[in-house]
Amino acid sequence: MPLRMYLSFPFSSFPWGLFQLQIGLVSLSVAGFAALLSFCSLVFALLLARPTSVHWSCDDMFSEWTYELCRDGSNVTSELADDPETTPRDVVHRLFKPRNGLCGRCQRGERHGGIGQLDLQQAYLCGKWGAKRPSDLFLQIYHDVLCTLDRNPMAGCASPALLGSSGVVPLTIIAPTRDVCRHMANCIVRAEQEVFLATNFWVSSRCSTIITDALKELSVRAGRRGTAKVVVKIMYDRAHLKQIINSRQLVYPQAATDVHVQLPPPEHIPNLELEAMNYHQPILGTFHSKFMVVDRRVALLQSSNIQDNDNLEMMVRLEGPIVDSIYDMAIIQWNAKLRPMLPMVNSPAALGQPPTFANPAAQKSPEKEMYTVPQESIRSMETEKRNELGCDREEYQPDIESETACIQACLRPRNSENKVESVTRYLNVIKRPDVTGDAPESSDQDEMTPYILHAPHNPFPMALVCREPWPALNHSSLYTPQNMAFLSAIRNAQKSIFIQTPNLNAECLLEPILNAVRRGVVVTCYLTLGYNDPGQLLPFQNGINEMISNRLHNSLKSEKEKSRLQIYNYVAKDQTRPIHNKFKKRSCHIKLMIIDQHVAIQGNANLDTQSIFHSQETNVLLDSAEVCQTWLDGIRRNQNTAIYGAVSPQDGCWHDPVTGDMAEDAIGVNPGRFSWIKGFVGAIKRVRGRSFADAPWLFGFILISI
Questions:
Q1: Element (H, E) at 277
Q2: Which label site among 134, 447, 456, 542 has the fewest CB atoms less than 10 Å from its CB?
Q3: Are 678 and 511 in contact (CB under 8 A)?
Q4: Strands 272-281 and 285-286
Q5: What is the 3-class SS of 515-552, one letter each residue?
Q6: What pTM does this model have?
Q7: pLDDT of amino acid 661
């Protein structure tokens, strides 16, 4: 007889009466029930396992072994080019096996002060920087990044010889997710041989439709050319029970029929060879990376997922040798055998010129015209009847100059609109008559410019600073390349630190930020009000932005020190006040740190507990005063945070300048005695409507937290 079990979490019987969670009816045979018990035992074993990461500490100098790994040039990509039948996993095990044991200083977790010129020279010799020598600040950060490789040379998620490189930035995008996806789509349809796309969330939506339509168009173009099929690899993270056994699951063509994903079915893309992988390391090892590589010539590194939301995002287009570094990282993360192999595996980007600046038209653009778009191009492309995606979905542009003109045309006032109303229309990803702008008109010099064309420039130093996923329920995975880049940047800053991140609550960053302020550094933080507050209220997440802001301000003694800590809540370009993320009207998801106005870290990582201790992240460290200044100017132009978003140093919260009230629905510095319950309720709401497979990690986290 089948055994019917009714599994229920009776949260409604709690005195709080906040929520009820039911899993449902499961009909099982006795044998099936025994199998389920065994499976659940495995799940709970994973939940309770709390191993210590090898990155719980770090030495203050890197070894001769690390130096040789960086210098000898061995990398996974070139090995795969020589032997396409092997797997990235096998190459990594052969070339970069972790060393056993820790040195004495590492075991004690000791960290010392600054580094000398000999150390800087060693760091310099561990990269291929091109014609420009990196600044001392960049080399100090890169030196500390290399120190994390001593026990695990793959801690940087790419071959050590490719971490230090160079490249150019032809285009920066500071825009809603829709227009980040639009540039991705234009790059996809221009691909000739291959596309590698990685994201955290892939949710069937209008933004995902922009990408899938581009894949269909790419198939059509490949068919017209009559060449070999274009190879496409897609990675995303949708946690599933199967990943307890194997964290990487190949999911195509099943993903074509998954209502939550809806990749194009094979019959719709006959001229593409598509593989898709779902990657998640249970419980907390999220694949949070977001990047795309096209034909091993262009890399896009962004803050955005593939989904519809109200976020302002940031994407950077990278070209030059740094593309080889990101390409190598992508292959390593795939881990399994590539079927088929990527066609460009034997064609390094370093052997050619950056494609954008090789275009004669781009070479003519003077520095002073960095933001301008030819008016005749705008007039020729502008139409009154744009659909709600901004530009017609079928409209693909031949180059980034045309793309910029198209996007800027969407911001031009139509009919009787003024500038603010046109910005409101642009930022309303879906039609929102309830969202209106109240900001005053801006000057032409402060006009919103979502696509920012950079003047042609020579390659400058860059480095890949990533972190691998850490799934265990502890914070021992601290000294990773990404985290050391952030910590070293803060520690070595001399004048200024600019940070924009949705959340700032990683404990390891707070005291270094305070120390920077105390030694005279001006620290500016742009944070998003209410961004994932429920998640930040869960146990071990360290709290919401208002709590951290209040704590930081109260930790400084003198008014002079407090004046150097400048914290703001994000304010959209058409607004005069921050809007809580709960309302899904105006949020910001940009992740950026700029140190002393010439060194920057840009990419996927938030400065919150999850990104610092658990998620896989991809970021680039770069050394260019010109690019950093352009980014700072773009941040200023595309939001009103600096004008209206300052929080009070008294309590760390934003207050209405007239009434003194906090923003609507802001929690403030005291979320209450049972704030963790609010976190659970919010987390339940976030997985509501998603597949049941998304929920087990949440259940486990609830159980282990309680």
A1: strand 272-281
A2: 447
A3: no
A4: antiparallel
A5: HHHHCCCEEEEEECCCCCHHHHCCCCCCCCHHHHHHHH
A6: 0.88
A7: 97
